[in-house]
Structure formats: C-alpha cells, structure tokens
Amino acid sequence: MTPIRRTVFCTLLAALAASLTIGAAQEPAAGGTRLKDIASLQGLHSTPLIGYGLVVGLNKTGDRKQTIFSAQSLANMLERFGISVPAGQMKIENVAAVLVTTDMPPFARMGTRVDVTASSIGDARSLQGGVLLPTPLRGPDGEVRASAQGALSLGGFGGGSGGNSVQVNHLTVGRVPSGGMVQVALTPEATNSDTIAFTLNDPDFVNAGRLARVISAELGPDTAHALDSATVSVRVPASYRSAVPDLIARLEPLSVDVDAVARVVINERTGTVVVGGAVRIGPAAVAHGSLSVRISTRNEASQPSPFSTKGDTTVVANQQVDVSESTAQLVSLEQGTTLEVVVRALNALGATPRDIIAIMQALKAAGALRAELVIL
How much is the pTM? Predict the structure, then answer.
C-alpha cells in the first residue's frame, strides 16, 4: 500500500471511529431511559389557547333553532360583508358553533403550525365534512396568539334517514391537522447562566437521585443535586455559560435507570387492566365465580274458543327466569409473587378483564396487593 493510500485509509478509519463514538454517546444504554423522556427543563411549558368559531358546510347536521348564539354569530359575520339578516329569521342547519383549543409549544415562532381541536357547543349532530372558518385563538392573558382554520378530520362517520341511522366513533369533535398558525410568539423565560433545573415528569426521590448522579458523572463531581422528588439542579460549567442550549443537548441523551412505581391501572368503562412490572402479591388465596341471571319474555296470543260470542283476543306475556353460577377454582398465591405468576394464575381461572378488575380490587381490600390501585 502506497503512503498516500495508507494516509487516506487511516483518515477514513479515524472518521468512522469518531462517528461510532458520537452515535454511542447519543444512544441510551440497554435498559435505561433517556433524560429527555423522564424530565423537562424547568420554566418551559406549553401555553393553552382557546377561541370561538363556526364550522360550515355540514349536511343538515348543524345547530338548530334552539342554539341561538350560532345564528347570531353567523348574522354578525354576514353583516361584515354588507349583508344584513336578522338572526331571528335565520334557519341554519349547515352551521355549527364550536370551541377551538390547542397548546402552543414554548419555542413556537411566528408562522409555526399546530394542530387544533374543534368541539361543538350547540346541538349539532355531526361535524362530518365541515370546514372551520378563520378563528382567533387567545391565551390566558386574553391576547390573540394564533389563528385557526381548515377542514375537520373526525376519524368517524355517520348517516341515515327516516329514523334509521348508523354512527362510527364520536362525530361532534374534530381536529384540523396543522390548522393553527402562531401570530404572536411568546418569549420563554431567560435561562439562568449559572444554574439550570430539570423537572421530573413523575416525581420520585429515587429517580431524582439517580438523575443527579448521572449528570454529575457526565459533567464532573457535585455538578448536580436533587432538590426534592421532582427537581434536579445543575451547575452550568464555565465552558457552557454562553452556550446553555449546547449543554442541554449534551445532557438530554443521557441514560437513566428509572425506578417504576408498582401500580395497577383499571378503566372500568372499557374493561382495560394494566399491571406494572413491579407489582407484587402477598400471600392470598383467590376464588372467583360468576353468577348470571337471565329473564326472557315471550309474548303469545290468547284467543277465545271457536264459535264463541264472548271474549277477546289478548296478548299474554310468558316470562322465564334462568339462574346459573359457574364453578369457582381456588388458586393460592405465595408471598412475593411476581407479575408473571399472577397473570398465569388469572389465566388458569379463565378470568375475563371484568373478572380481573374485581379480583384486583378484592386483593387490594385484603391487603395482599403490593401496589397502588388507580381507577380511571
């Protein structure tokens, strides 16, 4: 190999090694979670915006006469175009009054696009096929910060006539993807050049301590300290005093081993049960059976005897009651039982999601569930 080729080859190897090192530094370690996924920079938050607007172009599914403000809003808008129509004489079915809401990101600038949500506030049956007219959006201070307009996306549909109808999903709330445009940007609070602070999304003393140790290992001893269960203060090194964004970009990919809270989340409306991996069960014996009662009514016609001059044909209701109870199996759970064993035991019982909800609540009442029970 010639000296020139050897020099080029070594240069390529050095560049490849440097790129692999940078990529490895930006990727979290196996089993860890990035700092940016569990915490955010303190002082930065989104701003809620809200506005009142009209959705037009509906197929006779909009507000009716009972909703007075939608007719008044339409009359006021037409008056700006030189058309004067009394609101009381208007019969509108293709227009619906809505409240438009969105969240403006902390670093949004003029012209930034955001998604907006339009929710009906009248008696409109559906916003399907509607278009949101230009709507000013105001912040908590009452100042106009953005405007929104565009075609609504509902994620469902409905139709029918003559008393017959079909509906899929919710039809009185829609979204306008990228339908909002920031008009006046909010200036975020200036970041202190000496210290910055991270706020944990889920306050926890263990995670706050681990986060402080990871940052100190990256920047130097005693650089970060946990102030409480939700806040970690970081002393900005002298080399980053004038480039705090570069420091934040260096810290956000750091990997942190997150300690999860033992929690069981239950949604009784949908029958959803989510059991965390840290859940443990104390010694207990579980038996679960279901009792079902079914009442059925069958209407039959009772007619008088043939050639009878007395009596009328009547409808007689015959009711039948059936009661059944399934056989319950007793399952023993030992001390320190893990999630895998609990799932296997519940599957052995043939438990449905509704049954699991009842079993989890009973285990919590018995003091055998070593976890927080959250019911949505």
Answer: 0.61
